[in-house]
Design a protein that fits this description.
The protein is mostly helical. It has 4 helices and no strands.
């Protein structure tokens, strides 16, 4: 349920990635394989309804710990900045 929303940025000041068609390939990947499939979307209400609340509580704790770890490690890299995640996180 809900909408998938995200973005990919490519820093390519010398045009090397563009010459290799990396941006076009990323676009194709996003359009073809990163979207949820219709059968999964149809099954999701039953899956979510049959999942115990404890599972959701535990997974949320794990995701929060992972997010904090990623943010902490990125902040240790000179020259990089990161915002605290407020939505979906893939890592």
């Amino acid at each position: 349920p809900g909408w998938r929303l995200g973005w990919v940025t490519v820093h390519d000041c010398d045009g090397i990635l563009a010459a290799a068609k990396v941006p076009q390939t990323l676009l194709k990947l996003c359009q073809i394989s990163l979207g949820p499939s219709a059968p999964m979307q149809a099954a999701l209400p039953a899956i979510l309804g049959g999942t115990p609340q404890d599972w959701y509580n535990n997974i949320n704790k794990e995701l929060e710990a992972s997010a904090k770890c990623c943010v902490r490690r990125i902040r240790e890299i000179p020259g990089l900045e990161v915002n605290e995640p407020e939505g979906a996180m893939y890592c």
